[in-house]
Design goal:
homodimer; 424 residues; alpha/beta; Aspartate Aminotransferase, domain 1; Aspartate Aminotransferase, domain 2; 2 domains; 4-stranded antiparallel sheet; 13 helices; 39% helix
Chain lengths: 424, 424
């Protein structure tokens, strides 16, 4: 996190300049969207070959006709390709539908309606079910949980992952805490990657709930932005080593590798968890879209193919992230108004306002034409206690649009920040 | 249902012949599979163009980039194509994932975990939830319901659909009866299409449960086998007309139109039900695979394109159904041992054994190499009270294999039937 210095000089003058800049911004009347982590069209173009694959082929390596029913576990050759990416042995990695979010949702649903391995009762019959949520975090995790009445308990994040002192204390004491949401690599939105020690402790810690689960959303497993390609510890292996094999549920997808929404979701876990999910999902489906899986296997070819492909993404994304960081430094550096992250991968930059007022900044930016993720979205129940966090999603806009949007955002931060400093 | 005459002549001799025929069958040692309603490879070849579509295109008619996130309702142009097929206005027809079974499953899940429109409480909080199951019926409907502890109540089928006297009495008295599973056209496995009067009465009948639902699995909506293309009454319209707009949940898919498992599932209902499902599924998914939907829209072009395509399926399927009916007539006609259906569409022929013994027939056929759907699978809990129904799925095998398998099946029917007649 880059920290800016304390402000110097004439606050009133700075505020006047911010007001003037905001007026100009509004007059320009440009409409832009920084709300979601969507790939840009140029990124999607990288997988353009998928649009005419699998061409003349329809049989899998094992002779399966991918055009017909069956194959609940997904195409073996695609599971082989992604096993190293998600750190799950191929035989326990399932290739499923078009999203990992739906796999997370369905795991929660099945846990509510049938006992997970190790559970005393199904979660629907518990008096309370709570999940820990490292904050800032991913709003769709929160929404999915809230929808089922699962209580969300925020846990602070450090530069190495969730604060394990807090996590260990909570899970040791409270059997109603059944899970923790984690985006372990290039976390949404902080960009933090969990240290080996954090992963070890998550795997090792005693939990009051016998059916505690780590929901490991490894959404950015291969999504590097620098030459330092961060590797995290293998959670599944660590959980096994610590005698908690059933604790880890690993999720991933190709949504930000190939096509967003037309890719493939993956699930990996212990054999008991995999058998449990297969037994449940076997009542729901005769099998996933194997043609799309074959298409992906043909296109990506092997694990190295995934790496090569992700380098092409990086080439498109890195300049956008650098631009945002440059603009933030230029516009807010030394103002003492904000801190921001410098992620080594993933899809987001997290901007933290020293004096709060994130909701007001988002509102002002919106009135000037730039849509941002709602303030508070990074916290359970939309409740950011300091009203401080703004998530910036640089991937979708062009460089020109991005410069305009982030400059405008910085203007709003200055406007609100100086106002707040003056009114203290 | 073709009824055979009572048997004449020497039973002992007939049995001896059956024993001899069975011995020959076993000696041939051919392994065949008549278990599931799977399309044959030649049928899948009809949609071969899908394997290289959408080629250079990725934008929907409204300009949406199908390669990116969003569009929870599905691609408008595909919903337009299938609106007449499933008798649902396009604006209330959702195009979803790769199966309709999963949509049925998810509707049940969401009804268990959140109130459906009109419900007093969510189904998980009811002391009992029961579904009516016209029998013979579809085993995956039963399995999906059983998995959630939903009680299954069998209801007899007539040539016009479920026995409405029974249905009306049960639903009028018992508020725990929350639904009925229906395959209204070319039903699985009886081939029955519901008469207009049956559909009207289903739509009109008073129900003790305010949140009663008809789960209308229109799986064979376009799957004709004769020139008489059966049309059923529009359930959704009928329910609206009778003031029960929220009663109907309509499901369908292209599984047996394009590719089985790589097609598109559809859901149609009242606006309240559609809004309810969208609100729930919006927590599960950012949207379906729009590229596959675009591929389908390009390939099928329009509703007439679907009709034309289904004629090509019929050309491949009709000879198989005719072959089965010929063999049954030749081998069992006049024996008094069995009755069978002569479906005008769909995927199955239902064979009913006059003297029971379906399990034994299936076992003998299996020992001779021909796998059949387990006896009882057509009934909830696998409980066919007369052990009489055998489902024949003629679509997948070649004509040669089919002749062998059905001749063998008939041999087993004769063997068991004469045995039973003699031991009475």
């Amino acid at each position: 996190m880059t920290t800016t210095d304390a402000p110097l000089g004439d606050l009133t003058g700075r505020r006047a300049q911010a007001i003037e800049d905001y007026r100009t911004l509004k007059a320009q009347g440009r409409v832009l969207d920084l709300t979601r982590g969507k790939p840009a069209p140029e990124q999607l173009d990288l997988a353009q070959d998928l649009l005419s694959l699998p061409a003349g082929r329809w049989t899998a390596a094992d002779g399966t006709d991918c055009r017909n029913y069956g194959g609940l576990k997904g195409l073996p050759e695609l599971r082989e390709i992604f096993a190293p990416v998600f750190q799950v042995p191929a035989e326990r990695l399932l290739a499923a539908g078009n999203s990992s979010l739906e796999l997370m949702h369905d795991c929660v649903v099945h846990a509510l309606l049938s006992k997970v391995p190790g559970a005393v009762r199904r979660w629907a019959d518990e008096t309370r079910v709570a999940f820990l949520c490292p904050v800032p975090g991913y709003d769709r995790h929160f929404a999915l949980s809230e929808r089922f009445g699962i209580d969300l308990v925020p846990v602070p994040m450090s530069d190495e992952g969730p604060d394990l002192e807090v996590v260990e204390r909570l899970v040791a004491d409270d059997p109603t805490i059944k899970g923790i949401w984690c985006v372990p690599k290039y976390s949404n939105p902080s960009g933090v990657s969990y240290s080996d020690q954090v992963v070890e402790r998550l795997a090792a810690m005693p939990t009051a709930a016998p059916d505690f689960r780590i929901l490991w959303d490894n959404a950015y497993a291969a999504h590097h932005l620098t030459d330092e390609e961060v590797e995290i510890l293998d959670l599944l292996g660590a959980c096994e080593a610590h005698g908690h094999a059933d604790r880890a549920l690993v999720f991933g997808s190709t949504s930000k590798i190939t096509f967003a929404g037309a890719g493939v979701g993956f699930f990996g876990a212990s054999q008991a968890n995999v058998d449990w999910l297969l037994a449940k999902s076997g009542k729901r489906s005769i099998g996933p879209d194997k043609v799309n899986q074959l298409r992906h296997a043909q296109f990506l070819r092997d694990t190295d193919g995934v790496r090569t492909h992700m380098k092409a993404h990086r080439a498109l994304l890195q300049p956008k992230f650098e631009l945002v960081l440059d603009v933030l430094e230029q516009e807010l550096g030394g103002t003492g108004l904000a801190r921001w992250t410098t992620p080594k991968g993933g899809y987001f930059i997290s901007l933290e306002l020293v004096h709060g007022g994130a909701s007001e900044v988002v509102r002002l930016a919106s009135e000037a034409g730039t849509a941002l993720t709602p303030a508070g979205a990074t916290h359970p129940y939309g409740d950011d206690p300091h009203d401080a966090t703004i998530r910036i999603a640089p991937s979708f806009p062009s460089l020109t649009d991005l410069r305009h949007a982030v400059t405008g955002l910085a203007t709003c931060v200055r406007l609100v920040g100086y106002e707040r400093q003056l009114s203290r």
